[in-house]
UniProtKB/TrEMBL annotation:
InterPro entries: SRF-like_MADS-box (IPR033897), TF_MADSbox (IPR002100), TF_MADSbox_sf (IPR036879). CDD domains: MADS_SRF_like (cd00266). GO terms for cellular component: nucleus. It comes from Cajanus cajan (Pigeon pea). This is Agamous-like MADS-box protein AGL80. One of its GO terms (molecular function) is RNA polymerase II cis-regulatory region sequence-specific DNA binding. Pfam families: SRF-TF (PF00319). Coiled coil: none annotated. It comes from the Eukaryota. The keyword Transcription regulation applies.
Length: 197
């Protein structure tokens, strides 16, 4: 069962906030121990809480001192290389979200164009009022599909041990030939529509 997404806002209820702090702090300390053991890296945490005058350190005072002294020996440029401010973190998230949105938008557009093409194959000429953008996208999709069909056809020719040979040439099945003829006919019609517009 998937966990419910946490709303990242300040918890106003005192007892709930303290409970959350205790659980999250223990979880963080456990993760630091795990990453240190599993990956053999130096990691530490310094946690200041409102109720404790002394900070809680993990794994130990000496361990924290070692990690901090090693960090201070690194140049400032190298220190800042992997550090993220809230602004840079959000910028990275926005860039990733935009890339994902573009990818989903392209996939949706491809499905829309495929649907238009299939409607044309099944119902006849429905592109009388199609715009130039749709016609160009359909043309690109047809070219891509023809290339894929040609690639698969060539691959199957190579893989066949005993190809069907009639009058010295390899023949396709009737079903594949019909699909190829329909797609090529569709390409011809789309090209003609593009020239008219």
């Amino acid at each position: 069962m998937a966990r419910k997404k946490v709303d990242l806002t300040y918890i106003t209820n005192d007892s709930k906030r303290k409970t959350t702090l205790r659980k999250r702090k223990n979880g963080l300390i456990k993760k630091i121990g795990e990453i240190s053991i599993l990956c053999e890296v130096e990691a530490c945490a310094i946690i200041y809480t409102p109720d404790d005058p002394q900070p809680e350190v993990c794994p130990s005072n000496m361990g924290v001192q070692n990690v901090l002294s090693r960090f201070r020996r690194v140049s400032e440029f190298e220190q800042n290389k992997k550090m993220l401010s809230q602004e840079s973190f959000l910028s990275q998230r926005i860039i990733k979200a935009q890339a994902q949105m573009k990818k989903l938008s392209n996939a949706t557009r491809k499905k829309e164009i495929t649907l238009l093409m299939l409607q044309y194959l099944n119902a006849g000429n429905i592109f009388d009022n199609a715009n130039m953008i749709d016609l160009n996208d359909i043309s690109r999709l047809i070219d891509k599909n023809l290339g894929e069909i040609e690639r698969k056809k060539n691959l199957s020719r190579v893989q066949e041990m005993t190809p069907n040979v009639e009058n010295g040439r390899i023949t396709m099945t009737q079903e594949n030939q019909a699909i190829m003829n329909n797609v090529q006919g569709l390409k011809t019609n789309v090209d003609a529509m593009q020239k008219q517009n």
